[in-house]
Amino acid sequence: MSDIVLFDVAHGNCSLVRSQGSYSVIDAPLGAMLLNTLEDMGISCVDVAFISHADKDHIAGIIGLLTSTTIQLKKLYLNPDSQKKTGIWRALLAAVSVAEREGNCEVVSTLTTTTPGTVTVGDVAVHVEAPSTSFALAGSGGTDAQGRHITSNSISALLRLKHADRPGLLLAGDIDEVGLDDALRHDRDLTAQTLVFPHHGGLPTSSDAGAFVERILGAVNPSLVIFSNGREKHDNPQPEIVSQVVRIGCKVACTQLAKSCSKSPILDGGHLEPHRAHGRPTGVSCAGSITIDLADHGRRPAAIERAHQKFINDAVETPMCRVAPNDE
Amino acid sequence: MLGTINFSDVEQPQSVTIVDDDPDDREDLMDQLRDHKIEPRAVDGRYGQDIDRLVADVLAINSPFVICDHRLQAKNLASFNGSKVIKALGSSKHPAMLLTMYQKTHRLELREARAEVPVIVGRHDFQISQLGVYAEICRRELANDPVDERRAHRTLICIREIERAHGTKEFYVTVTNWRPDEAIILPAACIASDLVPQLEVGDYLLGDVNVGAAEEDDLFFKNVNEIVKADEKSGL
Asked: Cα(B161)–Cα(B179) distance, rounded to whole angstroms?
C-alpha cells in the first residue's frame, strides 16, 4: 500500500503518507486530529515530517508531534524564516529545543531542491521542486531576480510525490506566483495527476487569479485539483479560482463545503471516508478527508470518488465545481 | 470508524443516582428524569468528611450512572465538593458526571479537578436528552478509550504573564497546540511544585493537555513537569 491521506482540518493543511510501513507527515495545523489519528492507526513512529512554510495553519500540529511522548518523529525538514516573529514560530523553536534535548529527532533546517532534493518514504519518492537553494537563501523578506518581494508563502516547499514512475500528487503549500516562477525558471518537473491547490484556493497576492491558475495548472497538468479549505475562514476556495480550474477541465474536490456551494451545513452525507474529518460533526465536510492512491497513479479510489460526486449532485445547492465550461 | 463516537447509538441509562444537597434542585432533576422515563434514585444523608461512606452508599444503589452536584456543603450533605466524589467513583470504575451552577465562579478549582472529571455541565446547559452522551463519555474514559476531546497529548504551555495575589502566583498561559492566541489561567497546583519558583514570562512548560477540547472549561492539565527556559530555544 502506498497512499496519502489529505485530512479535512478546516483552514490549513495536513497530510499523511503511508508506504510499506513507513510514514511521513506534511504540515499540520492546531488541534489533536493528527496525533489522535496516528495513535489510532497504531503509528508510533513517523519517519519524516516536512513543514512547507512558517504559517500557523501548517506548523502548529508539527509542534505537537515534536513534543509527543507517544509518537516518535525521526526527522524534520523545514526552511528557516527569519521574518517570523510570531508566537507559533517561537513555540516551534521551543519544540525543536525539546526534540534536541531528547535527542530522538534530527531537525534539518533546509528544505530545497538540492537539500534534501528527494526523500523516500517506503516506495514513495518525495521530490522537493521548490524552493531552489538560491531562492531560499534570498529568504522571506528578500526580493527575487525581478525585484519582487519574497514572502513566507513564496518560499513554500513544493513537494511532488511519486510511486515508481507514475505521475503522483503535488502538494503546493501556500506558494504564490513568485515562488512558482522560481520552480519554473529552474525547469522543475511539476507534473502530477492530483494537485493540492496552493493557499487553500485563496486569491494570489500580486497577479490576477486567472493567470495564476493557468500558470500552475499548465505546469502541473492535473486531472484532479484538491482544495484544503475551511468553511468558516476566508471563504475559500474563491469562486474565480474554482471556475477557472473547472474551465480548464480538471475535477475538483474540496475538503469542506464552501458557503458559496451551500448556505447550510449538510449532516450525514454518508459518503465520507472513515478518517477523522474536522467538518464531519457539524456537517461542513464536502469530500472530508481524502485518500489518494499513489500506487494507482495518484487517483482517488473510484468508489469513494463516485460517492462524493453523488453527494454533490444530490445534496449541494450551488456547487462551484459544477460550473459549466462557458459560465463566467 | 476511526476515532469517532457514534452518539446516535448510545442508550440512555435506565436509572440515575443523584447526589445533591439542595432538596429543591434534587427534586427538579428527579422530575426531569421521570419525564424521560428514567428512574431517579437519590442519596440523602449527612456525610461530613466521610467520602468513603457516601461513595459506598452511591455504589450500593447500583444505578448505571451518577449525577453529582458540585457544592455539597450549603445544605450540609457533605463538607467536600462533588468533584471529589466523581474522582472517588472513577477509582471504582463507576461513571459519574458533575452538575454545577458554579462553572464560572469556581473555574480554577474545577480546572484543577478536570483531569478526573470527564463531564462537567452547568445547570443551565444540562439536557436530559444528552444523558446517554454524558454517560458514554464517562464510560469510555473509564475504559481508557477517551473521546477525542478528552485525549491528552504532550504539549507546550507558554507563560504569558505572572500575577501575584494574596501570596500566591497566578499563571496566564497559552496552550500552543490548542489556541495559541487565547490566554487562560493555569492554577499553580497544576504545575510541578519544584518548577513554580523558576517560572518567568516567556518560558514554556511541557504538560499533558487535552488539546482537542472545545472550550476553555473543558481543558485539563496533567504532568506539567518540564520547563523550557526562554533562553534555551533553538535558533532556526
From this structure: 16
